[in-house]
Amino acid sequence: MGKNNIQTLDLFGKAINTDQNLLPYDGTVNYFGKLFSQQEADYYFDVLMNTIEWKNDEAFIMGKHIITKRKVAWYGDEAYSYTYSNKSKLALPWTKELLELKKISEAQTGVTYNSCLLNLYHNGDEGMAYHSDDEKALAKDSAIASLSFGAERRFLFKHKQSKETITLFLEHGSLLVMKDETQTNWLHRLPPTKKVNQPRVNLTFRTMVV
Ligand SMILES: O=C(O)CCC(=O)C(=O)O
Ligand SMILES: [Fe+2]
């Protein structure tokens, strides 16, 4: 454990080694565990549910206009345009709480971010298919800090060549960081699950090239 790391404890009070790489090769993923008390995490979950301008995600896939059940939002330092699934969105200005969460993520990871993509999964029916966050607009191999609030969900990585998979659970109020060549070599997904009936909010702080 690096001496600048803030020590986090898991559910059983066991120290989490935030330097431990969860990927066996070709990238780096660190799980910081819960950064917040139950009360703080509940507070942020409620604030995000109520203050973020959630919109159903739209996509054009194989000529079809698709509207997802999952909701999304896009915030940033400036009105960056972010294009995915052939649809451009302009970043909204930071809210007070998003700025707080950005600062906390920056302090934990030692990296600064200029934008945040948010996802709202209403229940376990909603998830996200395998993808990498390797769009041209993102700084190559830059760190992505992922904060989760609400229902605990399973998260998977799959190596693009070897197909090896790594699985973990993203807890209420937890931080995960994906960095180095992770997006080049690994896909990730949030699988749907019958076991979860509660909503979850995820924030991914990112660095856009400007
Ligand atoms: O919900 C999550 O934990 C992951 C979201 C994700 O992969 C993304 O927004 O690119
Ligand atoms: Fe992603």
From TrEMBL:
GO terms for molecular function: dioxygenase activity. It holds the Pfam family 2OG-FeII_Oxy_2. Keywords: Dioxygenase, Oxidoreductase. Signal peptide: none annotated. PROSITE patterns: FE2OG_OXY (PS51471). It comes from the Bacteria. This is Alpha-ketoglutarate-dependent dioxygenase AlkB. It comes from Pedobacter jeongneungensis. The lineage of its organism: Bacteria, Pseudomonadati, Bacteroidota, Sphingobacteriia, Sphingobacteriales.
